[in-house]
C-alpha cells in the first residue's frame, strides 16, 4: 500500500536521476499535493468555522469515489460520474451535518473524535454492504487518455495534467469564494468570532451546513479523481485523511492559503522523497539495501517535515492562534 | 535603602497601535502594599500578565528578588517566589479546597513527581495546606469541591493558595471583585496582615479597600503611570482626579 | 463502598470467574477471549492515564501498542534463530523470557511516547489529536516498508514466550499472567491518581495556567503522564503479540488507535475500571453481533454514536452515576 493518493512511480531501481525524470516526479508531487489540498480545505474550513474535528472527512472522500464509480458504470459517462461524486458527497455531508455533526459543535474534541470515528465505521461497513469488498476501477474517457509531450521530451499522462489543472482551478475558486463573496465574508467572520456573525443576523445553522457540505463536496471530488488513478475501495479515505491532517498542521488551522502551501509541500516531499532517497543511499551502499532503507525513510519524510514545522512554528505556517 | 522585591523598569507592550504598557516603572518594597489602580482598559491586566510571565514585554526589564526575570516564564517566576491570584477565580473546580491548596504546597516543595504515595496521607503536603486554609478562615470548607463554594469563598481560596506558596511577593489581581461588603471587609483585614509576610502588589477597583490598605498607590491610565504616591497624595492629585477619580464621582 | 467500587469488584472478579468457569468446562476459546479482554483492557488502562486523567486526547496509542508488540516479536525471533540482536559494541542476544520482553517493550514504547509527546505537547486540543494520529501513522508506514522484520506480512513468534516455570501455552496460565498484570497496573493507577503527581495531572487537565502560577510546569506533568501511558499500552502490546504469537503492522494502524479509545469511552473516561468494562463490552459485542451480521462494525458504530450523543458517562457512568471526585 502506497500512502500517497496518486504518487505512481516508485522509481525503478538504479534509474539515474535525470532532469526530465525529476521534472516528471515534481509534476507527480504537485498533482498529489493539489488533491491533498481538496481534502485539507474542507477539514480546515470546518475546523476554522465550526471548531469541529471531523474524522469522517475520509468517508466523504470515499463516498465521492463510489458515487463516481457507480454512476459512471450505470450511465457509461465518466463526466456524469464526476458530477455525481461532487453532489453525492455534498449531500452526504449535509445529511450527516444535520443529523449528527451539529450536535457536536458544543461538545469537546473527544466527543467529536468519537462520534466521527463512529461515522467512519458506519460509512465503511455500509459501503462494503452495498458495493462489496473488492476494489472498483474507473475507465477514463477518451479525451483524457494517453499522454502529452511536454517540453523536454517527457510523455506525461494527460489525466494527471488535468488533475493538476482541476486542483489549482478549484483552489483559486475557493480562495475567490472566501475572499471575494458574501458567503466567504460570512465564513471569515465565523472564523474570527462566532458571536459576531450571529449579531450580523446570519443564519448560522444554515451557514454551517453549507460550509460542511462544501468541504464534503471537495473531498468527494478528490476521491473520485484519485480513485480514477488508483482504485475505488473501502478504507481508501483514512490514509488520505491523515495526510490531510499533516497538511493542516503544517499550514495552520483555518487557513486556506496554509492548506494549499502545506498540501503542495507534503505532495512534493513525499513524491520526491520516494524518488530521491533510495538513489541517494545507493551512492554509498548496495542497491537493494539502499532501496529498502531509502524507501523506509521516505515513508517517514512528511512526518519529519511536520515535526520540523512543529518545532519551528507550533501553530503552523499560517496559523495565528495555537489550535485549541 | 532596602532593595525592592519587584522592580519594573521601562516596560513597554504594544498590540498593534494600542500601547498597553507605555514605559512603566514600578517598585514593590518589602513590607508594603502597593496598589495599582486605573480605569478599565488602562492596561492593568496586560501589566499583570507581563509581571507574572504569561506574556513577554516588547521592551523593559522585570527583576524579582534581585534577579532579572524578564526572559523567564510563569513557572520560573512562581518558583522564584511570585504568588499570583487570578481576576476570574480559576481554582480547579473539581478539586476540594484542600486539594487546591495542597497543589500549591506541592509546587512550592517540588513534591509533584511522587507517583505512588497518596497525597492526602502526606503530611508534608496536608499540614501546610491546612494551615493556609485555617488562616483565611475556610477550615470548615476543607472537603468541599471548589466549584460548590460561594463566590466569596472562592476568592478567599485564591488567597489561601497564594499563602501556601510562601512567596516573596504577592501579585493580587482584583481580589475584592464581586465580594459583598461583609466579605470585602474581612478580606481587607486578611490582606492587611499579609503585608508582613511579603509585600503585595494589589490591583483593585474597590477604592475603599485601596485607601484602607495601600501604603502607596500608582495610577495607570492609557498604559502609563500618571501618578504615584501615598493615599493622601493621590487623593489630592488634580491630574488623577481628572483622569480617573473624577469618573467615579460622575 | 460506593457503587463504582462495587462495580469495579464485580468487573474484576467477573473476568476471573469467566476464565475459571470456562477452563473448568473445557471452553478453551472462552479462556482465550477472557485473556484478550484483559490485554485490551490493559491497553485502555494505559490510554486512560493520558486521556482520562490528563485530558490528552491521543489518537495515536496504536503506536505504543505496536511498538510493544514488535519488541516482543523482534526479541523472540532473534532468540528463535539464535541471531544476536546487536553485535557491536556488545553482543546482545534475543530472549524468550517474558519479564525481559516486557521491560524492553515498556522502555521502547516509553521512549517513543517521550519523542511523540514532546512534539505533540507543543500544541493542545485539536492539533494534539491530529499530530498523535499522524505520528502513529508514520510508525505504521515505517513498519510496512522496513523489510527486516516482515514488513507488510508481519512477524511470527513461533511458540509463546516463557515465564518462570509456567506453561504459557496453557490458556489458563497465560490468562493468569495477563490478568495479574492488569490488576497490578490498575492498582498502581489507583495509587497514581491519589498521589501528588495525580493531583498535578488532574490540575493540568482542569487548569494549566493555574498550575504554572504554582511553579509546576503543566507540559512536563502531561509529558510524564503521556510516557507512563505509552509504557502501559506498550506492555499490553507485548502481551497481545504473545497471545496471537504474531505481530503485524495492523497493531499500529489508526483503527487500533480508535479501538483502544473506544474501550476507554465505552467504559467511561477517567474511571479506573472503565477500560476493563469497555474492552469486555467490545469483545462481547464483537462475538455476538459478529454472529448476527458480518457487518457488525456498522452496529458498533451506531452504538458508539448513541453513547457519545446520549450516554456520555459510558458504562460505568450509567451504573455508578455522577462522576467520582474527592
From TrEMBL, chain A:
Topology versus the membrane: Multi-pass membrane protein
Keyword tRNA processing: no
Source taxon at top rank: Bacteria
Entry GO CC: plasma membrane
Cell compartment(s), UniProt: Cell membrane
A GO term, aspect molecular function: transmembrane transporter activity
One Gene Ontology biological process: amino acid transport
Pfam families assigned to the protein according to its UniProt record, in alphabetical order: BPD_transp_2
Keywords in alphabetical order: Amino-acid transport, Cell membrane, Membrane, Transmembrane, Transmembrane helix, Transport
Transmembrane segments: 30-53, 60-80, 86-105, 117-138, 158-178, 207-229, 241-269, 290-312
Family under the similarity heading: Belongs to the binding-protein-dependent transport system permease family. LivHM subfamily.
This protein's name: Amino acid/amide ABC transporter membrane protein 1 (HAAT family)
Organism (species): Breoghania corrubedonensis
Automatic annotation (TrEMBL), chain B:
Keyword Transport: yes
InterPro entries hit by this protein: AAA+_ATPase (IPR003593), ABC_AA/LPS_Transport (IPR051120), ABC_transporter-like_ATP-bd (IPR003439), BCA_ABC_TP_C (IPR032823), P-loop_NTPase (IPR027417)
Keyword match DNA repair: no
Superkingdom, taxonomy of origin: Bacteria
Domain ABC transporter: from-to ranges: 6-247
Record-level GO cellular component terms: plasma membrane
PROSITE patterns (alphabetical): ABC_TRANSPORTER_2 (PS50893)
Pfam families: ABC_tran, BCA_ABC_TP_C
SUPFAM superfamilies recorded: P-loop containing nucleoside triphosphate hydrolases (SSF52540)
One function term, GO molecular function aspect: ATP binding
Record's keyword terms, sorted: ATP-binding, Nucleotide-binding, Transport
PANTHER family: ABC TRANSPORTER ATP-BINDING PROTEIN, CONSERVED COMPONENT OF ABC TRANSPORTER FOR NATURAL AMINO ACIDS-RELATED
Identification of the protein by name: Amino acid/amide ABC transporter ATP-binding protein 1 (HAAT family)
From TrEMBL, chain C:
Domain of life: Bacteria
Stored InterPro entries: ABC_transp_permease (IPR001851), LivM-like (IPR043428)
Protein localization: Cell membrane
Pfam families cross-referenced by the UniProt entry: BPD_transp_2
Extent of the signal sequence: 1-24
Segments passing through the bilayer: 34-56, 63-81, 101-119, 126-149, 174-201, 221-240, 260-285, 297-320
Gene Ontology cellular component terms for the protein in this record: plasma membrane
Membrane topology, from the record: Multi-pass membrane protein
Coiled-coil annotated spans: none
Keyword entries, A-Z: Cell membrane, Membrane, Signal, Transmembrane, Transmembrane helix
GO molecular function list: branched-chain amino acid transmembrane transporter activity
Full protein name: Amino acid/amide ABC transporter membrane protein 2 (HAAT family)
Annotated source species: Breoghania corrubedonensis
Amino acid at each position: 500500500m502506497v500512502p500517497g493518493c496518486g504518487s505512481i512511480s516508485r522509481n525503478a531501481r538504479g534509474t539515474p536521476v535525470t532532469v526530465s525524470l525529476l521534472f516528471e516526479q515534481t509534476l507527480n508531487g504537485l498533482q498529489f499535493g493539489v488533491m491533498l489540498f481538496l481534502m485539507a480545505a474542507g477539514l480546515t474550513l470546518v475546523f476554522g468555522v465550526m471548531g469541529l474535528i471531523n474524522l469522517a472527512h475520509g468517508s466523504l472522500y470515499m463516498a465521492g469515489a463510489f458515487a463516481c464509480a457507480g454512476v459512471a458504470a450505470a450511465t457509461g459517462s465518466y463526466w456524469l460520474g464526476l458530477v455525481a461524486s461532487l453532489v453525492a458527497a455534498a449531500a452526504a455531508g449535509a445529511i450527516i451535518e444535520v443529523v449528527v455533526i451539529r450536535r457536536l459543535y458544543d461538545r469537546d474534541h473527544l466527543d467529536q473524535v468519537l462520534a466521527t470515528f463512529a461515522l467512519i465505521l458506519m460509512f465503511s461497513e455500509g459501503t462494503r454492504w452495498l458495493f462489496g469488498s473488492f476494489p472498483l476501477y474507473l475507465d477514463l474517457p477518451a479525451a483524457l487518455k494517453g499522454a502529452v509531450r511536454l517540453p523536454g521530451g517527457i510523455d506525461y499522462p494527460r489525466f494527471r495534467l488535468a488533475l493538476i489543472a482541476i486542483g489549482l482551478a478549484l483552489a483559486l475558486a475557493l480562495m475567490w469564494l472566501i475572499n471575494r463573496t458574501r458567503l466567504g465574508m460570512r465564513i471569515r467572520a465565523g472564523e474570527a468570532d462566532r458571536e459576531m456573525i450571529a449579531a450580523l443576523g446570519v443564519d448560522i445553522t444554515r451557514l454551517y451546513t453549507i460550509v460542511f457540505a462544501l468541504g464534503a463536496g471537495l473531498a468527494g471530488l478528490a476521491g473520485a479523481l484519485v480513485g480514477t488513478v488508483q482504485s475505488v475501495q473501502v478504507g481508501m479515505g483514512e490514509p488520505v485523511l491523515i495526510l490531510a491532517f499533516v497538511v493542516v498542521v503544517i499550514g495552520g488551522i483555518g487557513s486556506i492559503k496554509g492548506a494549499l502551501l502545506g498540501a503542495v509541500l507534503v505532495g512534493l516531499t513525499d513524491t520526491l522523497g520516494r524518488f530521491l532517497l533510495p538513489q541517494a543511499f545507493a551512492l554509498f551502499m548496495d542497491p537493494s539495501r539502499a532501496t529498502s532503507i531509502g524507501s523506509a525513510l521516505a515513508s517517514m519524510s512528511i512526518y519529519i517535515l511536520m515535526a520540523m514545522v512543529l518545532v519551528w512554528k507550533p501553530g503552523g505556517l499560517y496559523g495565528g492562534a495555537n489550535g485549541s | 535603602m532596602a532593595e525592592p522585591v519587584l522592580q519594573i523598569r521601562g516596560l513597554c507592550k504594544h498590540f498593534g497601535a494600542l500601547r498597553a504598557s507605555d514605559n512603566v516603572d514600578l517598585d514593590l518594597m518589602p513590607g508594603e502594599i502597593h496598589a495599582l489602580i486605573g480605569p478599565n482598559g488602562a492596561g492593568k491586566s496586560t501589566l499583570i500578565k507581563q509581571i507574572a510571565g504569561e506574556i513577554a514585554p516588547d521592551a523593559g526589564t522585570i527583576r524579582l528578588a534581585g534577579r532579572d526575570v524578564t526572559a523567564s516564564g510563569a513557572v520560573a517566576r512562581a518558583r522564584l517566589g511570585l504568588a499570583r491570584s487570578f481576576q476570574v477565580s480559576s481554582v480547579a473546580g473539581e478539586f476540594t479546597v484542600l486539594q487546591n491548596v495542597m497543589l500549591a504546597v506541592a509546587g512550592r516543595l517540588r513534591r509533584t513527581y511522587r507517583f505512588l504515595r497518596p497525597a492526602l496521607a502526606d503530611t508534608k503536603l496536608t499540614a501546610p495546606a491546612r494551615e493556609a486554609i485555617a488562616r483565611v478562615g475556610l477550615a470548615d470548607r476543607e472537603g468541599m469541591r471548589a466549584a460548590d463554594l460561594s463566590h466569596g469563598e472562592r476568592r478567599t481560596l485564591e488567597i489561601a493558595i497564594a499563602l501556601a506558596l510562601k512567596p516573596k511577593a504577592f501579585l493580587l489581581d482584583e481580589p475584592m471583585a464581586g465580594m459583598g461588603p461583609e466579605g470585602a471587609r474581612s478580606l481587607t483585614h486578611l490582606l492587611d496582615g499579609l503585608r508582613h509576610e511579603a509585600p503585595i502588589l494589589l490591583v483593585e477597583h474597590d477604592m475603599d479597600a485601596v485607601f484602607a490598605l495601600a501604603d502607596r498607590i500608582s495610577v495607570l491610565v492609557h498604559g502609563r503611570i500618571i501618578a504615584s504616591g501615598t493615599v493622601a497624595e493621590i487623593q489630592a492629585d488634580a491630574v488623577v482626579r481628572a483622569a480617573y477619580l473624577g469618573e467615579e464621582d460622575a | 463502598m460506593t457503587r463504582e467500587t462495587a462495580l469495579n469488584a464485580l468487573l474484576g472478579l467477573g473476568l476471573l470467574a469467566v476464565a475459571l468457569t470456562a477452563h473448568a468446562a473445557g471452553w478453551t476459546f472462552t479462556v482465550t477471549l477472557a485473556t484478550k479482554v484483559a490485554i485490551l483492557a490493559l491497553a485502555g488502562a494505559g490510554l486512560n492515564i493520558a486521556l482520562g486523567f490528563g485530558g490528552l486526547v491521543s489518537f495515536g496509542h496504536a503506536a505504543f501498542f505496536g511498538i510493544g508488540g514488535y519488541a516482543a516479536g523482534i526479541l523472540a525471533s532473534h532468540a528463535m534463530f539464535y541471531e544476536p540482536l546487536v553485535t557491536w559494541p556488545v553482543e546482545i542476544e534475543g530472549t524468550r523470557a517474558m519479564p525481559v520482553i516486557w521491560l524492553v517493550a515498556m522502555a521502547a514504547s516509553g521512549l517513543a511516547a517521550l519523542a511523540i509527546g514532546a512534539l505533540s505537547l507543543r500544541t493542545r486540543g485539536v492539533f494534539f489529536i491530529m499530530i498523535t494520529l499522524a505520528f502513529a501513522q508514520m510508525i505504521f508506514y515505517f513498519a510496512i516498508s522496513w523489510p527486516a522484520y516482515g514488513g507488510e506480512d508481519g512477524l511470527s513468534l513461533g511458540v509463546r514466550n516463557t515465564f518462570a516455570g509456567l506453561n504459557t501455552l496453557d490458556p489458563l496460565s497465560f490468562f493468569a499472567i495477563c490478568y495479574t498484570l492488569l490488576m497490578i497496573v490498575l492498582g498502581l493507577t489507583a495509587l497514581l491518581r491519589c498521589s501528588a503527581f495525580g493531583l498535578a495531572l488532574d490540575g493540568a487537565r482542569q487548569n494549566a495556567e493555574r498550575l504554572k502560577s504554582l511553579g509546576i510546569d503543566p507540559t512536563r506533568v502531561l509529558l510524564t503522564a503521556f510516557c507512563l501511558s505509552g509504557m502501559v499500552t506498550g506492555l499490553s502490546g507485548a502481551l497481545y503479540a504473545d497471545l496471537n504469537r504474531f505481530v503485524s503492522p495492523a497493531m499500529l494502524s489508526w483503527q487500533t488507535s480508535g479501538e483502544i479509545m473506544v474501550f476507554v469511552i465505552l467504559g467511561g473516561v477517567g474511571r479506573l475500571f472503565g477500560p476493563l468494562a469497555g474492552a469486555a463490552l467490545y469483545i462481547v459485542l464483537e462475538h455476538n453481533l459478529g454472529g448476527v451480521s458480518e457487518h457488525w462494525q456498522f452496529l458498533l458504530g451506531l452504538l458508539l454514536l448513541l453513547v457519545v450523543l446520549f450516554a456520555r458517562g459510558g458504562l460505568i457512568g450509567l451504573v455508578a452515576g455522577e462522576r467520582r471526585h474527592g
